[in-house]
């Protein structure tokens, strides 16, 4: 049994803790905030409850596997989101996608004209092959140059991965309708990135969403964190909130514990669920992992988000998830990732408004989560989201844009809570409020994301800023990877420490015969 410290009680940290304790380790989780959950946050006001993080769950089997591996199913009901999403394009046309992937081609044909469904089928078939290549071999295992080289050595696999293509170029090759290309390009934003710079392999995200469906947890996705935390507590994980870790102790090139509340806590392994940049730049000694610090310094931050939480009078029927695209999607990415980052004048607007009685004070009301992509908060070298008056001005601007796009809620507003990228940085610890850490730009984006095993021995990374990326399923995969790495390291240590015979075989006690 080893002693493990986890820094951060976000979903990744809690899932890792549950897996480690189930495997026989002793685990303490230190969380700087007064509550657990990290980016899977919640805000309550005047009888309304809002998820302030992810609003959809894909690949529910990954969550179910976590509970199966740590003691059995949790009391966590999932419901299909149907329709999965409604898209309103810049020209006013609308596409409503059903939960059932078998019905998706007909939905494309009906909304965008004959042939759109066939174009989607071709893309989906290509993405299915991509998923076979990267799903299990890449996403659910530590970063592996060997796996990438193996795919590159097989011409058919190399053509499928197409490292020379971006998501945007893939869409231009396969999707004749510009609205279809806009729809596909949005999946680059799932990693906080620009589709014109994001490798085409990331288009597999669209396959995952349509193949495995969109799911919701009644009561809000925050209940996922609550269920994982409950599992941790059942297993004996010690969770200390309001306890910010000041530094990671390193001796002889190995992590030996953490300093928290002015005292040293010794550990055999340390798992960091904080943003990778924060770990390498703030928590580690200056001499440790210097190369990683330089590498992350030169990587572009992912986009952040500007969020409005609206408490509305009255209810209007409609899809729980809606996306309102601008006429010029490229201009959005130019504003966010350009040399002088700025708020997007005409942004894509994402609305989440689940019909969930648990989230509203009465049946004559509804809550809207409204998100627009935004540049990270960077007063010194980029954009300052704390500038006087900006919060209110941009809030009004987004509400006016919603009205222009046919979703005028201004007369129904009971209250507005605004969360800027600066607020996200302060609430979650993500530098600049960059939700996904670094952007997935360039053909080697998968290899350039911080690995789960750090250069400092005994120090591991979990969560959205590390491999394999952000979003609930990928964060849970990162927890599975980290728990496996710690288990394999401990097993290797035990094996090397075991006495050896003259022939080199380990002399371990044999179990009694039966």
TrEMBL record:
GO MF terms held by the record: oxidoreductase activity
Metabolic or biological pathway: Carotenoid biosynthesis; staphyloxanthin biosynthesis; staphyloxanthin from farnesyl diphosphate: step 3/5
Highest taxon above the source species: Bacteria
Enzymatic reactions: all-trans-4,4'-diaponeurosporene + 2 AH2 + 2 O2 = 4,4'-diaponeurosporenal + 2 A + 3 H2O
Cofactor: FAD
One Pfam family from the record: Amino_oxidase
Keyword terms of this UniProt record: Carotenoid biosynthesis, Oxidoreductase
Region called Disordered, residue ranges: 490-514
Residue intervals of the Amine oxidase domain: 11-484
SUPFAM superfamilies noted in UniProt: FAD/NAD(P)-binding domain
InterPro entries, A to Z: Amino_oxidase, Carotenoid/retinoid_OxRdtase, FAD/NAD-bd_sf
Family: Belongs to the carotenoid/retinoid oxidoreductase family. CrtP subfamily.
Identification of the protein by name: 4,4'-diaponeurosporene oxygenase
Organism: Mycobacterium deserti
Gene behind this protein: crtI
